[in-house]
Design brief:
Chain lengths: 1020, 491
Amino acid sequence: METLVDMMKLRFLTLALVAALPMGVTASTARYDTEVAPIFAAHCVSCHGPTKQKAGLRLDSPAGLRNGSDGGAVYLSGQPEESLLFQVVSGLHEKLTMPPKGDPLSEAEQGVLREWLAAGAELPETPEGAAGVESDHWAFQPVQRPELPALPEGAWGHNPIDAFTLARMREAGLHPNPEAEKTVLLRRLYLDLLGLPPEPAEVDAFLADESPDAYEKVVNRLLASPHYGERWGRHWLDLARYADSDGYEKDRPRPYAYRYRDWVINAINEDMPYDEFVVQQLAGDLLPGATLAQKTATGFHRNTLTNREGGIDPEEDRVKQAVDRANTTGAVFMGLTVACAQCHTHKYDPITQREYFGLYAFFDAALETDIPSPLPGEEAAYAAAVEKHNANVAAKETERAAYIAGLGEKLAAWEDGLTLPEEGWTVPAARSYSARGGSTFQALEDNSLLLTGEAPVADSYTVVLKTDNPATRALRLEVLTHPDLPQKGPGRSPNANFVLSEFRVFAAPADAPHDVTPVPIASATATYAQKDYPIENALDGDKGSGWAVGDGSKTSKNSTAEFLLAEPVGYASGTLFTIELAHHYGGFHTIGRFRLGLTGADPASIPFSDDVFAALKKAPDERSDADRAALLAAYGKDDETYRQLTAALAKAKDSAPAPIASVTMALANNPQPPVTRIHNRGDFLQPGAEVQPHTPAVLPPLKVRGDRPDRLDLAQWIVARENPLTARVAVNRVWEHLFGDGLARTSEDFGTRTEVPTHPQLLDWLAVSFMEDHHWRTKSLIKTILMSATYRQSSYLRDDIQQKDPTNRLLARQNRFRVEAEITRDLFLAASGLLTDSVGGPSVRPPVPEGVMNLGYANSIKWEESEGDDRYRRGLYIFFQRTVAYPMLMTFDCPDSNVSTLARNRSNTPLQSLTLLNDPVFVEAAQALAQRLLTTGPDTLEARVATAFKWCMGREPKAKELEMLVGLVQSQEATFAPLPEEAKTLVGPYLPESVSPATAAAHTVLARSIMNLDEFLTRE
Amino acid sequence: MHPLEEKILQSRRDFLTSTAGGIGGLALASLLQKEAPAKPVGVNPLEPKENHFAPKAKACIFIFMAGAPSQVDLFDPKPTLNKLNGQPLPESLTKDMRFAFIQKESAVVMGSNQRFKRYGESGMEMSTWLPHIGDCADDICMIRSMHTEAFNHHPGQLMMNTGVPTFGRPSMGSWINYGLGSESDNLPGYVVLTAGRGATGGVSNWSSGFLPSTYQGVLFRNQGEPVLHLANPAGLPHECQRLGLDTVRDMNQLHYEATRDPEILSRISSYELAYRMQSAAPELIDLSGESQETLDMYGVGRTEMGFKASRGGPKGTFDAFSRNCLLARRMVERGVRFINIYHASWDHHSDLDRELRFTTAMCDQPIGALLKDLKQRGMLEDTMVVWGAEFGRTALGENRGGFREANTGRDHHPNAFSMWMAGGGVKGGQVIGETDEIGWNITKDPVHVNDLHATMLHLFGINHEELTYRFSGRDYRLTDVAGELVSQIYT
């Protein structure tokens, strides 16, 4: 009761205050602040406010109310009973009752709400999205540099990283592993930084170098290697879902996708700061004076799939692409699983569906563009060709102009020799026109008629012309192209054709228009007719036949038909001709644009087009330039020299050099961006409320340069110092590549459902250091980690670690793990000496087993095998055909590149074993290694075995290992001795001179065995 | 913790204990381990696992007729079509439809030239071109009320295989192997067989998506070696292979002792399984042990019998499809969990009758033989056979380009189509669902693709809402966010 009384008082007060309100503040506004907002605060804001935004709705700010929920508006101004807001609190709604728990709104509160809505629901002006969202989730807190843990003087470690890890180990009663052996360290560095094994000479040099900075020197050298960009570029390409084809059914190749891949490799080799790296990829095209390289960087978001299947809805595919771009942006740069909010407000993370579409809106406004992007040399060659071409055209022009200049008398003589009828064709405007089947017409300025609107399958047109000519002898029908017609027409069928089934003419006196008589036609001619569709068909009275102009790809051109009347027609009062054009064929085969003409002359006596005829009728000094050009063209038909010169000029003009085909796939801003709307339940066919590009409120505010936020604003917001996610996500990913696991284990998700990082302070220390000390330079960050004692530990799994920390969260040892698919290939090729180590360029197609590519759609995948050195290039250069990816890569967990891959699987399967044992690529590697060993290696068996082992593992074999391998070679050699043919087959083309097939085969088995050892594929 | 998860972790603990003193056992890896879902640390990922509840099916043969067969010509007779032949449909039916190729303005109904017959005691109606499948009508549960969202091939095939019409998700065979493991210790748990032209979806149809590649479908090829890279390199005698593998194993064991990383044990097991597969796979595809009667029943060695078609596949397709059906039975016998038999293509936009004659002649005898063979061997009880495709076809004739005269085929139709199932707990001799007079919309008991998947998992003893995998911060499942059990299928 008390509440009600208070409410009454309040209402009285409000009413009393109305008169005293300042200008611009209405009674209703005041009631929002004083009455409505407190109701929301009391009942609603715990679920629809700063901490939770259920259904995407916030009721703690005017902006939240205006934005509505994921489903759209929650109130209708002036209509309380129609407003969801009121329905759910008053029992009017069939399904929903709010609040779901706790006290319902009192009658008085319901009354306030109803009156406020009824009065217009006015809200104070506040900027959209100004209200912040609160979260206590660690990853959304600002990144600050933490204090280093206090450790005793002289504690283990080389740099602050070790202080953080040691402190955690001590808490758990663990101690670090010792530093790994030098050979292990060296191979670890090579695999982590280059993805290639160290050469034996490099192993020896490192073992011999006892200087204190021996390790650092190797780190510096490897970070400067061009192969570093390949290794770390490939990590990035996983995130970028890079591939060389479209995906989906047709899966067409993208021959220039590699330009983006090479941009990544170069940027990483040049150690482009990560903030620039991000900005260029998201919005390089929007940077002031964007360079080609910066535009190429936007190829990041061109790696999205494209569906070119017949019958696809293009808008659906475009939406899918923008969705993928929004999802990828959230995941790759900020570790946010925004994709969850596509269909509904995120269940766990503070991201509403509206905010999802705010992010989506940035990419909704982007267009795909392929920009010419000449390769080195291409541009100069093109410029030279253009120059040559221009000179050629100029020469031909000069020659022709000189001839024309000397024509004066010949031209006059030609004109004098002509005999022309009194009149030519006239093209009167139609008096009326109609269509039986509902076609609609538009009369154009040249008196032609254009068919507009929905095309009926078939139709008959009727056109009425009036003429004062006392004796019309012929009619003319011109069928004309127009840009609005399918493929420019002249017909309305999808292939631009038409079939004129019947052409009929009637005449009536102008003063007795109902006195209509049919006009017989004697004959007809046409400038062009399709085979089996001659013009005569339009006069034969047979609906099933007709005149058509189909001519394959050349259908889109004008044609003319002339109809000679059986006898001249004319009435004293003027003549009304009614012309009927019937199309019975179907399939939209109707004429799309046409013009009717008539003449009293014999059409055969008018050998010229209307413009030539008109020019001839003018006195020479009244002729325009266009008239003179028309006459020259008409004259020229009979002047051999003129014709040749004109043809030569046309030919010269036609032979312009082909423009440079090399393109870069990039993004550009759509000058007329579509209105972005929430897709209810993620379905683009259910558009909801309109959304402007904006960023989630739980993160720092977006700074906007212009009127409308664009991708560059978004990119700069992502890399802003105050963005709490970007640097954390980036350093975590670097850590993951150097330890096998990130400090935050779920490197793909920094949302609220992830576990707290193993070393939250170390993560923040690295993130701050990355931004402030390393100035976003990744090489520098990597070096800091590599120099730490934590990185350099042995990966040996001690009993106490296995018991206390089985998943190695505390980093009391390094991890050991299998290398990725591409690196597996690289190791085989490098150890055998087959590897072609050139960097960049178009992707290659190494041989694949027969039948593999047939799995693509209807055998449409063309896999032209690369030749020569290209067969032996690194794994990352293999042409990635999305629907039939190179089998070996897929067997080893290479991502399918359909969506961004944030963490690869590392499976261990029998198919991997079969591939390593028997894939012809790897068998060839074994053959080549054996040959290399037998031709360049030492003489004794033991020494040879040791050499082969060192090529592969970067270390000498232990005594027991050596013994086993020597035993293998000996027994194999004995087995092969009586089987020379088998031995030769196994060795293939790699049989060294002066070595027995059995010996070569035994060494091939040796090489195959070493390269199938777990250690070979493992980064220890 | 979910019971299944607990079981898996338990089996992993058991494994680690039992192999602490030596190797042997199978490969290893962690599955539902929350902190590192995708990184095996040492349990056989294909080790048989316990179901959520007692299963009725142990294996599945999914016969996928890629391209989408016409249900109104094969399984869902619509006499009204012939009455309405040549007439346009009311706009209310076509207004909100999206077609791949049909031009709405001039499209007209196309009658069916097929004859239907009542088969079995249940009197189930099917085309007279499917006599062998018809013989099994009383074991078949016909669903005439399937529907899907996708109306283009690739998204549609992904939908039917992975539960969503987009890339990147695991296929049903991967999910089932992930959930249940494999009964076979020398063959993959998920095998794919194809005949005819490549399906639109290519290998994405049997991808393991974000699940480890352990669970991806392994293509058994119909040319060359049955499994890619199965055969030893030319010239390598068998004893050399064994000797080389022994050395690899012993040296890996040495290295395990030096590092103590259980992943090495996993590698050793993978090599052993690979070695066993080298003899098991050729044995599997070697049909010389099958009786002539069996070979004839499936039609192994058949030619195309004078039938011709432009989409149904090249010469040899009949024989390949017959072999695939027989191989599927042999695989189930050997413990393979999930088998996909693909045939492409049934995308009959034109020349429907001739193409259907070809494809029905191709598939009817071997599929009928498969059902009968499974039954006579007592295997049909726990082997589920599914026949279906990505969607159905329209009652409207296809009028690409607006030609009425050229209507000889049908366009894609996702609103209503037919599939059938048999065995593995499926109740035969019944028809589920009804469609309207022209097969345009469902009028009774709609079954969505996610519902079908939920029900299939149920028959495998899996609760579809609990078979999940954490990826990119979300727990994914085969049925995405939908799926209702269709209990009529099994009761």
